[in-house]
C-alpha cells in the first residue's frame, strides 16, 4: 500500500488525498483505504493527477463497473463512458442534484477531472445529505422516513422562455429525448455505511401521493437542510485535479459565475445499486428504460 495522506477540508464534508498515483494500478489495500475515506468524507480531492480519459476510466473501475456517459447526452467522441461537462454545450448545471437519479440505479460514485478551467469562478459545490438528515428535527425525520419521491429528467426548469437561446433549447431537447420517471425513497439507506441521507435534489419533482404544490413545499423544506453552508464543500478547481464523490449520499451544484468563459470537466461514473429506503423497500421504475446506460444487478 502506498503512503496515503488524508486531510479534512471541512468538518462535515471533503478531504484532500495525497500519496496515491492514480495513473498506476492500485492494490487492494489502497482501494479499501480510498473507499473508507470516501465513506467518511463523502468527497475526495486529488491534485496533480496525470490522467487522460483512459486513465480516468481505469481509476474509476477500481470501485466497480462504469456506466456509459449518460442516458441521453452524448459522450466524448469515441469514448462512450466519458461525459464532457462543457460550458460550450449549454449552461452550467447550476441547480442542486444527485447524478442521474431519474433512473432505477443511479451511479454510486462520480468522478470529475479538470480539463479547462476559467481564470475565476466555476466552482463545484458538494453537499453532505447524511449531515442534512441528521440536522432534521425529529418530527421532520420521522416524516421524511415515510416519503417517496418521483424523479424525472422531464420537468419545468423554470427558465423564462424568452431567455432560452437556441443552444439551450437544443440541449434541453437532447436531455429529455427519452423520458424517465422513477420513484425513490426520500431517505436512502447507504448500503455500505448504513447512514441515512436525504435522496432528493433537482430531479425529485413530486412526493408520491401528494399534489405538485404540496410536494414542492415539502421538498423545498427538506432541501434547505441539504444546502446549509455547514454541509457544503465549495471546491475551486485547479488544473489536473480529480474529484471523487459518493453520489448515493451527496448533491452537487456547478456555479455559473465565470462569464461564459471556457470550462470543461470530464465525468466518469461508477454503476450503482437500486436505492433502498428505511423500511427496506427498493426504488421502482415508472417510465423509461435505462439499460443502455447502466445494467441492474439481479
Give the key terms.
4-stranded antiparallel beta sheet; 298 residues; alpha+beta; globular
Write a structural description.
The protein has helices at residues 28-41, 53-60, 129-135, 138-146, 166-175, 212-226, and strands at residues 5-8, 15-18, 43-46, 83-86, 109-116, 124-128, 148-152, 181-185, 187-189, 196-198, 204-207, 232-235, 242-246, 250-254, 264-270, 284-287. By secondary structure, the protein is α+β, with helices and mostly antiparallel strands. It is globular, with a radius of gyration of 18 Å. 38% of the residues are buried. The mean pLDDT is 93.
Given helix and strand content, the structural type is alpha+beta
Trace the largest sheet across and list its strands: 1-2-3-13-5-15-4
Radius of gyration using CA atoms only:
18 Å
The biggest sheet amounts to: 7 strands, mixed
By DSSP, the count of extended strands is 16
Distance between the termini: 33 Å
Any chance you could write out the topology, listing elements then pairs?
Elements: E1 5-8, E2 15-18, H1 28-41, E3 43-46, H2 53-60, E4 83-86, E5 109-116, E6 124-128, H3 129-135, H4 138-146, E7 148-152, H5 166-175, E8 181-185, E9 187-189, E10 196-198, E11 204-207, H6 212-226, E12 232-235, E13 242-246, E14 250-254, E15 264-270, E16 284-287
Parallel strand pairs: 2-3
Antiparallel strand pairs: 1-2, 3-13, 4-15, 5-13, 5-15, 6-12, 6-14, 7-8, 7-11, 8-16, 9-10
Helix pairs in contact: 3-6
Amino acid at each position: 500500500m502506498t503512503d496515503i495522506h488524508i486531510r479534512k477540508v471541512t468538518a462535515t464534508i471533503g478531504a484532500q488525498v495525497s500519496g496515491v498515483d492514480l495513473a498506476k494500478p492500485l492494490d487492494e489495500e489502497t482501494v479499501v483505504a480510498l473507499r473508507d475515506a470516501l465513506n467518511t468524507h463523502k468527497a475526495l480531492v486529488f491534485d496533480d493527477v496525470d490522467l487522460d480519459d483512459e486513465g480516468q476510466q481505469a481509476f474509476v473501475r477500481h470501485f466497480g463497473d462504469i456506466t456509459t456517459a449518460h442516458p441521453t447526452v452524448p459522450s466524448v467522441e469515441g469514448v462512450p463512458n466519458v461525459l464532457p461537462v462543457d460550458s460550450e454545450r449549454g449552461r452550467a448545471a447550476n441547480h442542486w442534484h444527485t447524478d442521474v437519479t431519474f433512473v432505477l440505479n443511479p451511479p454510486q460514485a462520480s468522478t470529475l477531472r479538470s480539463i479547462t478551467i476559467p481564470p475565476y469562478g466555476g466552482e463545484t459545490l458538494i453537499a453532505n445529505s447524511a449531515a442534512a438528515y441528521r440536522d432534521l428535527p425529529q418530527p421532520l425525520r420521522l416524516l421524511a422516513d415515510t416519503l417517496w419521491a418521483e424523479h424525472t429528467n422531464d420537468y419545468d426548469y423554470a427558465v423564462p422562455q424568452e431567455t432560452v437561446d437556441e443552444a439551450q433549447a437544443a440541449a434541453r431537447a437532447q436531455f429529455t429525448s427519452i423520458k424517465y420517471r422513477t420513484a425513490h425513497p426520500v431517505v436512502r439507506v447507504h448500503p455500505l455505511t448504513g447512514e441515512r441521507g436525504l435522496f432528493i435534489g433537482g430531479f425529485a419533482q413530486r412526493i408520491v401521493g401528494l399534489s405538485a404544490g404540496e410536494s414542492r413545499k415539502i421538498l423545498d423544506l427538506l432541501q434547505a437542510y441539504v444546502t446549509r453552508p455547514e454541509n457544503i464543500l465549495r471546491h475551486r478547481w485547479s488544473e489536473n485535479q480529480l474529484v471523487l464523490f459518493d453520489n448515493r449520499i451527496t448533491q452537487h451544484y456547478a456555479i455559473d459565475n465565470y462569464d461564459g468563459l471556457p470550462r470543461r470537466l470530464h465525468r466518469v461514473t461508477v454503476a450503482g445499486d437500486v436505492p433502498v429506503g428505511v423500511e427496506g423497500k427498493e426504488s421502482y421504475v415508472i417510465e423509461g428504460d435505462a439499460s443502455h446506460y447502466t445494467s441492474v444487478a439481479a
